[in-house]
Design a protein that fits this description.
Elements lengths: L1 E2 L4 E2 L33 E3 L2 E6 L7 E6 L3
Antiparallel strand pairs: 1-2, 3-4, 4-5
């Protein structure tokens, strides 16, 4: 995430070191523990960030992060 006013970049999801081919645990609740080797796009709707990933050439994950109010 980039805060336009300050230019500060903040990580909102994903580990520092991703592992190609490693699937995510569907029960994971910490967005900073997600494996996101390749992000093809992101979409924000209804307080949710949708992050489809290309984990392998055959399969991928759809990560849905919900904004906590």
């Amino acid at each position: 995430m980039i805060l336009r006013e300050t230019g500060i970049i903040t990580t909102i999801a994903g580990e520092h070191e991703s592992i190609d081919g490693k699937s995510n645990n569907p029960q994971e609740t910490d967005p900073l523990k997600l494996n996101l080797p390749e992000i093809s796009s992101m979409d924000y709707h209804d307080h949710r960030l949708f992050v489809p990933t290309d984990i392998t050439k055959v399969t991928g994950d759809l990560i849905v992060l919900r904004k906590q109010c």
